[in-house]
Amino acid sequence: MLALSEIGKAFGGRTLFADVSLNVNREDRIGLVGPNGAGKSTLFSLILGQESPDSGKIEFQRGLGIGHLPQESAPAGDESVMELATAVSSEMVRLTRRLKAFEAGHDHDSADFHEVQARFEALGGYQLEVKARPILRGLAFRERDFHRPIRELSGGWVMRAHLARLLVQEPDLLLLDEPTNHLDLEALLWFQDHLRHYRGAILMISHDRDFLNQLVTSVVEIRQTRLFRYRGNYDAYLEQRAANEEQLLAAWKNQQREIARLQAFADRFRAKNTKAAQAQSKLKQIERMEKIEAPQAAEAKIGFSFPQPQRSGLKVITLDRVRFAYGEQLVYDGLEFHAERGQRVVLVGPNGAGKSTLLKLLAGVLPPRAGERRLGHNVKAGYYSQYRVETLHPEFTVLEEAFDTPQRLTETFVRTVLGSFLFRGDDVFKKVSVLSGGEKSRLALVKLLLDPPNLLLMDEPTTHLDLSSVDALLYALGQFAGTLIFISHDIYFIRELANHVVHVQGGRLAHYPGNYQYYLDKTVALRGAAGIGTNAASSVPNGAINLPRPGNAAGSVLAPSRKEQKRREAEQRQARSAERKAQQQLVARLETEIAELEARQTELTADLEKPETYDQSGRAMAVNRELQDALQRLARLTPEWEAAATRLAELELAG
Prior knowledge:
Elements: E1 2-11, E2 14-24, E3 29-33, H1 40-48, E4 55-60, E5 66-69, H2 81-85, H3 90-103, H4 110-122, H5 125-138, H6 155-169, E6 173-177, H7 185-196, E7 201-205, H8 209-215, E8 218-223, E9 226-231, H9 234-269, H10 276-288, E10 315-326, E11 329-340, E12 344-348, H11 355-363, E13 370-375, E14 381-385, H12 398-403, H13 411-420, H14 437-450, E15 455-459, H15 467-479, E16 483-487, H16 491-497, E17 500-505, E18 508-512, H17 516-529, H18 562-608, H19 619-654
Parallel strand pairs: 3-7, 3-8, 5-6, 6-7, 12-16, 12-17, 14-15, 15-16
Antiparallel strand pairs: 1-2, 1-4, 8-9, 10-11, 10-13, 17-18
Helix pairs in contact: 3-4, 5-6, 9-10, 17-19, 18-19
């Protein structure tokens, strides 16, 4: 359906592509990868006809429909969300506007009205809204927002509306440039599932490793002005590339040794009459060789240590009976939350559930209406948001801004960190005032890592990062010795970091003292125990959803009096309420004990890794005994918590 043949393209004397070819067939799922500036977006521009190749040709199947989602800055006009979502063609936009004019009384030509209406119906116009509704809901739009003017929404929601338009349109080829940037976790999971069943071909640029792994069937890498295609998902690409590079390096080394041997013979004997002909033959042999290109050095693995914060007390932060509202809209009432040293907590839940609000309450950015926020002993909190860049100095260069820290750092170290986050070469001498929003967010992230607090609060930190920069951030946070609470839609990032999950919905928090897989497993188990299908659209803990209560049993032979029936129902409600409250207390106590034991396990394990532990007679043995005791208690308490949580879910669903 699409063929690029021997394409060449250069900008300002720099060659991006040299004789590259690529075929895209129907139902292909291709991930386009490569370092920042390699030419991924330029390749999209060539396919879309926004740029012309310097050489070669691009051929399209007749009538091929192409849909493109840019990374940033999709247009927003006076149309509503629904009108944008159903604007699948220029003719459909024109017809919709004419029908609106008729409805508003601006056009009174009845014959023309019937003609426009007939054409609109023939093109499936009346079915488009039916098709758009579930797509908009999947992307987390609320029903009441469907008819809001798009210009009233933030840039991220405008991008979601344009994404909805593409999914309604269903073009033969989808070109997606970082499509997950503006989605929360639950919208991303819906979008991912929708693309699995998409009937056309998809060519996508994404920094989300898990998203690529779930969807793509081949990966095209841009490297050294060429395209290299690998079969399989992103993990398969990494394995194949490593194997290919190993083979290429071995072949290159063998050829270099052979060239050196032939050259040495020629150098030694070219001056001797009896050997001159042989020496010349060796030189010609070198010339005739098809030279193996020297393999590109793999990106250097990060091998430096980031600065570490001062150690905090065990209890890091507490929200006690917090109440918060935006105007009349109540978000939290009686909110309780606490985190302990070393925890890496990810906040998950549907869009609008209050995750970012909770993070801002923890950061002190939003003051509670009632209740208290308490920091623990020696705690210093730092908040990172992709939109929080007010602290940067517009007159500084990138390098000067990075150096604006109390930490004593070398220029080599600072430039290395900046390079890991896409500030390379002369980019470090740019003024902060000329940076894009994404560049400012990355710079704010670098500053936070160069002088980290011991309580780090992060809202979508991987937005605007490429895959290598995400790896750099994971490396830094993997070393981080403090407490981390974060929101992310990048499942790979969550899996690599989180050791505690908090599900947020309806002003309530459900805690899962384990990693992301543990959260998913427990969610499925709780749903199963409550009799809810496990193939629901989202993984929502039972304690945080509203379900219809079971109906009363029918067919009683001797119906009690109305007064007696009310008395019995009241007693049953009281009994259920008392049991539910007792079960909630039991679950909370078990969760607290498990969290304390896990924290103690981490401390004891760290003690066993310290050389000084073994300098004190009997110290290592005592630490090991305490560690084994903690592990045994964890093994006993965990199934108790599972049983208690399952029973609590049943009680809450029963009402």
